[in-house]
UniProtKB/TrEMBL annotation:
Membrane topology recorded in Swiss-Prot or TrEMBL: Multi-pass membrane protein
Function: Part of the binding-protein-dependent transport system for glutamine; probably responsible for the translocation of the substrate across the membrane.
Chief localization: membrane
The name this protein goes by in its record: Putative glutamine transport system permease protein GlnP
Length: 320
């Protein structure tokens, strides 16, 4: 009996239709509140041309001005006979040949491209996420194994840590770390933010690791011990590799959530992506445009992470 595959294009077309409908609904909603879109204001918050004012170092006069394209080279001769050469943008030149200058007078500006606040906020979000995720993974692995330990002290302490962190809001933990622990130990706000996020992530990773290890059949450990492996070797070479395949999806989901949770460190004046977006809104008055860009940047981080985790999951499944 030949099995015929049903065409999938009608479902893809329905998906496209739903997305178009959502876009039209958004457009109608903004039209009802008479919102004027100003996307032209957004690029400057990713990169812009900064201007550095070039000033005379001493009293003197303009000895020579040589124009080359968009640049002008100005030679100043001081009263003591020393010369100062400045390269400035031609359209910013404020002096002519023979003019007298005083110390600190502006000659012109030099322009160079620099990252805007949204770009810097994205970078801050990235390094906070990477550091918090790495430390959170180590903490979670250790705490998860402690929860499976035969030592009652290790098991009890790890249980208290997991339940305490999971049972309180992350925002409260950040405040405690910064205003209490950070003040007592004189920690920077960046250190306090990373530590709070790492401990928060570690508690969830600990439960993921515990569940993954316990999902492996006890016969695996017994077989490893019968081959002469001790408890540590059995866990490292037999149990954890199998558990890792099973816990990869929830781990990926936890790290994706961590990237979004970094937005909460803005409450302790860390200028990450969300805080950069709020600051950009106060100067551009382009509320919807900036928030859409911020959301897109979070997607830019999380979609590749999700894709990598999916590919790794498929590769590990093929190795079974």
């Amino acid at each position: 009996m030949i099995k015929h595959n049903k065409p999938q294009w009608p479902w893809h077309a329905l998906t496209a239709l739903v997305l178009v409908g959502l876009a039209c609904s958004l457009y109608l909603a903004t039209s009802m509140i008479s919102y004027e879109w100003r996307w032209n204001r957004v690029p400057q918050y990713f990169a812009f041309q900064a201007e550095d004012v070039q000033r005379a170092a001493s009293y003197g006069s303009v000895e020579e001005i040589v124009v080359s394209g968009d640049q002008a080279r100005v030679t100043l001769k001081g009263e003591d006979g020393d010369t100062q050469v400045l390269d400035v943008a031609k359209d910013s030149l404020q002096l002519s040949r023979g003019d007298d200058v005083s110390e600190g007078d502006a000659v012109g500006v030099t322009r160079h491209w620099t990252a805007g606040p949204l770009a810097w906020g994205l970078w801050t979000t990235l390094w906070i996420s990477v550091l918090s995720g790495a430390f959170g993974l180590l903490i979670g692995l250790f705490a998860g194994l402690c929860r499976l330990s035969n030592n009652p002290t290790l098991r009890d302490l790890s249980t208290v840590y997991v339940e305490l962190v999971r049972g309180t809001p992350l925002l409260v933990q950040i405040f405690i770390f910064y205003f209490f622990i950070g003040t007592v130990l004189n920690l920077s706000r960046e250190f306090a933010g990373v530590a709070a996020l790492a401990l928060f992530t570690g508690a969830y990773v600990a439960e993921i690791v515990r569940a993954g290890v316990q999902s492996i059949a006890k016969g695996q450990n017994e077989a490893a011990r019968s081959l002469g492996l001790n408890a540590g070797q059995s866990m490292r070479h037999v149990i954890l590799p199998q558990a890792f395949k099973r816990v990869l999806p929830p781990l990926a989901g936890q790290f994706i959530s961590l990237v979004k949770d970094t937005s909460l460190v803005s409450v302790i004046a860390i200028t990450e992506l969300t805080k950069s977006g709020r600051e950009a809104i106060t100067t551009s008055f382009s509320t919807f445009e900036i928030w859409f860009c911020v959301a897109g940047l979070y997607l830019l981080i999380n979609l590749p992470l999700s894709h990598i985790a999916s590919r790794l999951e498929r590769r590990l499944a093929q190795s079974d």
